[in-house]
Design a protein that fits this description.
Protein name: GTP--adenosylcobinamide-phosphate guanylyltransferase
Keywords: Magnesium, Nucleotidyltransferase, Transferase
Distance between the termini: 39 Å
Low-confidence stretches: none
Number of domains: 1
Largest sheet: 8 strands, mixed
Number of strands: 10
CATH class: Alpha Beta
GO molecular function: nucleotidyltransferase activity
CATH superfamily: Spore Coat Polysaccharide Biosynthesis Protein SpsA, Chain A
Number of helices: 11
Pfam family, one: NTP_transf_3
Organism: Sphingomonas aracearum
Oligomer: single chain
Radius of gyration: 18 Å
CATH topology: Spore Coat Polysaccharide Biosynthesis Protein SpsA, Chain A
Structural class: alpha/beta
């Protein structure tokens, strides 16, 4: 594929519950099925056909793991949005962005996502319906946003298709900066959008398009048919689910 990929593997600061649960220094180094979580993500992105892969990371251990896996380690900034902005400036667009805790990432998700981004789109996000997540990952607890056309969960896959996507990343930075001051987020995103959402009259497609226009870009949400794409490792229960899922997948079908 003729674009680069950025894997966000920075630390939130303080003690990470997943790393503590697994007994390692950093979540990206957690062992899953004989591989570090980061190496699994790098491998999936590479198998999807992406040749140039950078890993935004803090600390020498994670950077060394990225280098061992053939990816380019780059210093993480203060937060995922700032790291993405830095990565976009360095790597350019088009740029695929995912996270180092996307332990079950499959190459076909990446290929299908990028292939379905509409022509003229500046930034796209992959999402999954609650029904698809429930069918593919029963028992996994996800966070959903409720829209008029269903409940949706993010899949930690973004495609910054053009240089104009930088404007969307700037909006992301502003929202991230004001996450503890909700009234500022509402002011930035617009009260009309919020009211339509609260009234249950806003679809996901409309919301993403509206947010894109606020940022000055064309934005799109792409639905992934495989709900497993919404599973990341954000808490110890997620790690237990992923390990259990992979263990079950290795068991031969006796039917």
């Amino acid at each position: 594929m003729t674009f680069a990929a950025l894997i966000l593997a920075g630390s939130r600061g303080g003690e990470d519950p997943v790393a503590s649960h697994a007994g390692v220094a950093d979540k990206a180094l957690v062992d899953i099925d004989g591989q570090s979580m980061l190496s699994r993500v790098i491998g999936a992105v590479r198998e999807a056909g992406v040749g140039r892969i950078a890993v935004s990371a803090q600390g020498p251990a994670v950077q060394a793991e990225a280098d061992r896996c053939g990816a380019t380690p780059v210093a993480a900034e203060a937060g995922p949005s700032a790291s993405t902005a830095s990565g976009l400036r360095t790597l350019g667009a088009p740029l695929l962005v995912t996270t180092g805790d996307h332990a079950l990432l499959k190459p076909e998700w990446v290929r299908d996502f990028v292939a379905r981004v509409p022509t003229g789109t500046d930034v796209a996000v992959l999402v999954a319906r609650r029904e698809a997540v429930g069918a593919a990952a029963p028992g996994s607890r996800r966070t959903y946003l409720r829209f008029a056309d269903g409940h949706w969960s993010g899949c930690n896959l973004f495609f910054l298709a053009t240089p104009r996507a930088e404007a969307a990343v700037r909006l992301w930075q502003a929202v991230e900066k004001d996450r503890k001051r909700p009234w500022r987020i509402v002011r930035r995103l617009g009260p009309v959008l919020l009211l339509r959402y609260l009234a249950g009259r806003l679809t996901l497609t409309e919301a993403v398009a509206h947010l894109g226009r606020r940022a000055g870009v064309v934005a799109a949400a792409i639905a992934c048919p495989d709900g497993l794409a919404a599973v990341d490792v954000d808490k110890p229960a997620d790690l237990d689910f992923v390990r259990g899922y992979l263990a079950q997948a290795r068991v031969p079908d006796r039917a």
